[in-house]
Specification:
5-stranded parallel beta sheet, alpha/beta, single chain, about 550 residues, FAD/NAD(P)-binding domain, 22 strands, binds 3-acetylpyridine adenine dinucleotide
């Protein structure tokens, strides 16, 4: 009988799923290292999250010059953002430009949805099956599937009877939706809702906003780019990169303490006022590290935000409803808005407290509230978020060693080593996976770090003739402990957020992000690689131990 190990030649060396920031970077890096790579994406264009999230007002809430690839000086130098925070179409254009510039398209298969990914131990090969019925094989699988890529639409009785249009912000029609003169409801007031609401209010005849939980939001400080700053950044990218790699959040500023003892309050208020005027996270939320750990400093900042809402919103009842109280500031993503609170001063905008008077049901013409009110609607916008962090891999039908599914492995929440690999899923690498710094740090730098780490790891395996890599259970449970310990020093776990899976019914409540510091994380991952991948096991070409040095376990 032929040995299964030699029975098939894989179609590729690496299959990458996802053609957003992570997938494009992975393709460029791995192809550059000499591997045969294919990228698969369900969308009809590149861009990942920036392909799908086309809702009105969608823009990045991180300054664009920090939200760009830094792995190539040329790419960085040759692209110029038109605004401080780029809008979705411009970011999509940027990623298309990168795809052309790096000649990536020839290795990307668009309109290709992965429905299963199964690992075969005998020949250490992943087989990817697509919705169209194709099967593609490779020894390595890279999940560049994003942290927020599976939209979540809650169940509402009667929603299927509604005769108007229903659109989720994260699967907005490419051709757009004309909301002019229409009666629109937005359900949800997270980052997406808060960006969309002011823009929708401009064209809708009536806008009804359903808010279940108020969020903290600050002015984004949207403005033209400061050309001098851009020129300086382009000229000194290497220094900026160095500083950001060594920064606790992957940016170029170090947070300081807000310092709110009694004598300091007046000074702190004046400082916050100055920063509020400039707008943006780095100015306020990310600027003070004690805010994330110290309840008193946190409440001081939270109350400052509430005072701003009361200043802006004319109706005091509406203002109070818009004041966030149920979670420490920063423990849910703080939103960056453009005239969000001002929108509630408009005559055509109504705020509904969806906690006090929840939606009872939909019918053909609109929505019925629990207090008996009926609101006639033409369009419902679901700004209801995502099955975050774990949703994409779970939806992809990933099956590892001995038939273990990712659902089995993550039944009590995600368990990983470094947020990069999972026990029982050899040769599967995640980019910005759960338990890595991902969404709470500079995403693009986090992606670039993982891409570099994964490319180096595969190179290492090639050099040593290794067929497969996966973490040891001990290393994985040690990383679980580290992630938990880092979170327990902060206020993050105190919120009912998507960071802990609270927005998806039945999802285990576990804090899913590593918050021990981006710089520390990078050093940890890199040291592990340099020391011969401590905490990982390798399988040699004949299934036997192929490498055994300084405690590297082999099987
Ligand atoms: O989703 P969310 P999002 N009835 O989960 C409400 C990133 N992002 O798409 O809080 C009524 O934050 C829910 O209410 P509650 C960013 O990281 C970035 O807005 O559960 N309401 C909440 O208000 C962000 O954090 C940008 O009580 C219901 C809302 O829906 C992440 O994406 C832009 C409900 C969901 O908010 C997710 O943001 C946009 C129900 N049954 C997003 N179910 C950038 O700028 C849910 N809700 C880069």
């Amino acid at each position: 009988m032929p040995d299964a190990r030699e029975s098939r030649t894989p179609d590729f060396d690496v299959i990458v799923v996802g053609a957003g920031f992570a997938g494009l970077n992975a393709l460029h890096s791995l192809r550059g290292a000499g591997y045969r790579v294919v990228v698969l994406d369900a969308a009809d264009g590149v861009g990942g999250t920036w392909y799908w999230n086309r809702y009105p007002g969608a823009r990045c809430d991180v300054v664009s010059i920090d939200y760009s690839y830094t792995f190539s000086d040329e790419l960085y130098r040759d692209w110029s953002w038109s605004e401080r925070y780029a809008q979705q179409p411009e970011i999509e254009r940027y990623l298309n430009w990168v795809a052309d510039r790096l000649d990536l398209r020839k290795d990307i298969r668009l309109g290709t949805r992965v429905v299963s990914a199964v690992y075969e131990d005998a020949d250490a090969t992943w087989t990817i099956s697509t919705e169209a019925g194709d099967h593609i094989t490779a020894p390595f699988l890279v999940a560049a599937t994003g942290c927020l890529s599976v939209p979540s639409t809650p169940h509402f009785d009667g929603l299927d009877r509604f005769q108007g249009e229903i659109h989720h912000t994260a699967s907005w029609p490419a051709e757009g939706v004309d909301l002019t003169g229409r009666r629109v409801a937005v359900i949800g007031t997270g980052s997406s809702g808060i960006q969309a609401i002011p823009v929708i209010a401009e064209s809708a005849s009536e806008l009804t906003v359903f808010q279940r939980t108020a969020n903290f939001s600050l002015p984004a400080g949207q403005r033209e780019n400061d050309e001098e700053r851009v020129r300086h950044r382009k000229a000194s990218l290497a220094q900026w990169r160095e500083a950001a790699w060594n920064n606790s959040a992957g940016f170029d500023f170090e947070p300081a303490a807000l310092g709110v003892d009694d004598l300091e309050r007046e000074r702190a208020y004046a400082e916050l006022d100055r920063r509020w005027g400039r707008g943006g996270f780095p100015e306020i939320v990310l600027a003070f590290d004690d805010v994330f750990k110290n309840r008193e400093a946190n409440e001081f900042l939270a109350e400052y935000f509430r005072s701003k809402v009361r200043e802006i919103v004319r109706d005091p009842d509406v203002a109070e409803l818009l004041c966030a109280r149920d979670h420490p500031i920063g423990s849910k993503r703080v939103c960056a808005d453009t005239r969000y609170y001002e929108t509630f001063n408009r005559d055509n905008v109504t705020l509904i407290d969806a906690r006090a008077t929840p939606i009872a049901s939909f019918d053909e013409t609109g929505v019925l509230l629990s207090d008996g009110r009926h609101i006639e609607l033409d369009v419902v916008v679901m700004a209801t978020g995502f099955d975050a962090m774990t949703g994409a891999l779970r939806r992809m039908g990933v099956v590892g060693r001995h038939g273990t599914t990712i659902d089995d492995a993550w039944a009590s929440g995600p368990h990983t080593y470094l947020g990069i690999q999972v026990v029982s899923f050899p040769n599967l690498f995640m980019i910005t996976g759960p338990q890595s710094p991902s969404v709470l740090n500079n995403m693009i730098l986090g992606i670039e770090h993982h891409v570099r780490w994964i490319t180096n790891c595969i190179d290492f395996m090639r050099r040593h003739g290794l067929r497969s890599i996966e973490p040891t259970p001990e290393a994985q449970s040690g990383w679980d402990d580290e992630v938990r310990a880092a979170a327990s020093e902060t206020l993050y776990p105190q919120a009912e957020s998507w960071y802990v899976g609270a927005n998806i019914p039945g999802k285990p409540r576990v804090f899913m992000v590593y918050v021990g510091g981006f710089d520390k994380y990078v050093r940890t991952c890199d040291a592990i690689a340099e020391e011969g991948y401590e905490g990982f096991v390798f399988d040699g070409p004949d299934g036997a131990a192929a490498l055994s040095r300084s405690g590297i376990a082999t099987q």
